[in-house]
Design a protein that fits this description.
Blueprint (H helix, E strand, L loop, with lengths): L2 E4 L8 H5 L10 E3 L4 E15 L2 E14 L3 E2 L1 E15 L2 E8 L4 E5 L4 E4 L6 E5 L2 E5 L2 E3 L3 E5 L2 E5 L1 E10 L6 E17 L8 E3 L1
Antiparallel strand pairs: 1-16, 2-5, 2-17, 3-4, 3-16, 4-6, 6-7, 6-8, 7-10, 8-9, 9-12, 10-11, 11-15, 13-14, 15-16
Length: 199
């Protein structure tokens, strides 16, 4: 079984951004026991995203990906996020996330990237507020082996965004932060749990 924890999976497509850390000095790769490995998982606890528009919290995230070889330098994750709320000036309002086809990429060298179709971004919508998070690449944590697991943790900082609306105001920044944890399970095509590691 490969169960790994990562810092945050906001918007799911941003999963990689919070999970990754400072690039390792030596080249490293992900290794999978199966030739084709299914990656799936769900968030632990509540993810928190902070920006000048307010604090966004999301209770649930599920995502999937596929590793198509036993050794590779990165993999993509895609999925859905729900149970989100935006806290602005002490008021809590419901928010929804539109991935717009964006995905998160986790690199073995501990970088994370949000990739989107041309002209698209992740969009957070709440009454009177729209937050847009464009494609970007970040670091902010570490990836280590733990038994048969990857353990990924940390907080990504310097996230770029824009926001508009009477609830959260108008502006932009590059000071957003994302933190949280997610457990991921990897299996072969038959559904049997398989070992994965990084080295």
């Amino acid at each position: 079984m490969r169960s790994f924890k990562r810092g945050s999976i906001l918007l799911l497509a941003l999963a990689a951004l919070a999970a990754v850390g400072v690039p390792n000095a030596a080249a490293v790769e992900f290794h999978f026991e199966s030739e084709t490995t299914k990656i799936s998982g769900s968030q632990e606890g509540v993810s928190t995203y902070t920006m000048t528009a307010g604090e966004l919290t999301c209770e649930t995230a599920t995502y999937t990906g596929v590793a198509t070889s036993k050794t590779q330098s990165s993999f993509k994750l895609a999925g859905t996020v729900s149970g989100c709320h935006l806290i602005v000036f002490g008021s809590t309002i419901a928010a929804t996330i539109n991935q717009n086809g964006c995905e998160g990429v986790i690199y073995a060298n501990s970088e994370g990237e949000l990739v989107c179709p041309e002209g698209k971004s992740v969009v957070v919508t709440a009454p009177g507020c729209t937050i847009t998070i464009p494609p970007q690449k970040k670091t902010g944590g570490e990836i280590v082996n733990k038994g048969n697991h990857f353990h990924m943790s940390g907080t990504a900082t310097g996230i770029k965004y824009t926001h508009s609306g009477f609830t959260c105001g108008f502006g932009s920044g590059s000071n957003g932060t994302i933190s949280g944890e997610t457990t991921v399970i990897t299996t072969d095509t038959s559904g049997k749990e398989v070992k994965s590691w990084i080295e």
